[in-house]
Design brief:
With 107 residues, the chain is an all-beta fold. The chain has no helices and six strands. The relative contact order is 0.18.
């Protein structure tokens, strides 16, 4: 999920004018981007990204906002949290909790 604007390096070309969170999946050099319709703001948000079969589900504050079925890698998933500030403004990025759980593993 991206906080995007015209200066965002990842999504600017596809979504130059949105002020909303953007759901993104990427496989090789091809991305799928969907406007979540949830405005970026200064309040805390709860994000959940879940793989279900051949789909990636994106939840914001407990509500399903996007479902992607294209450009989903079949490689090992390495989740990460990162911040990129391309504006001349001071911003705060707080991660209160981050959990990665892998389901369906057979040993």
């Amino acid at each position: 999920i991206h906080d995007t604007a015209a200066t965002s390096s990842e999504t600017a070309a596809a979504n130059p004018s949105t002020a909303n969170w953007v759901c993104a999946t990427r496989n090789s050099s091809t991305s799928t981007l969907t406007d979540s319709t949830v405005a970026v703001g200064t309040t805390f948000k709860l994000f959940r990204i879940m793989r279900s079969g051949t789909s990636i589900l994106f939840f914001i504050d407990g509500t399903l906002r996007c479902t992607h079925t294209t450009n989903i890698t079949d490689q090992v998933v390495m989740p990460m949290v990162s911040a990129e500030n391309l504006e001349a403004l001071t911003k705060v990025f707080i991660v209160d909790f981050f959990r990665y759980r892998q389901y369906g593993i057979s040993r």
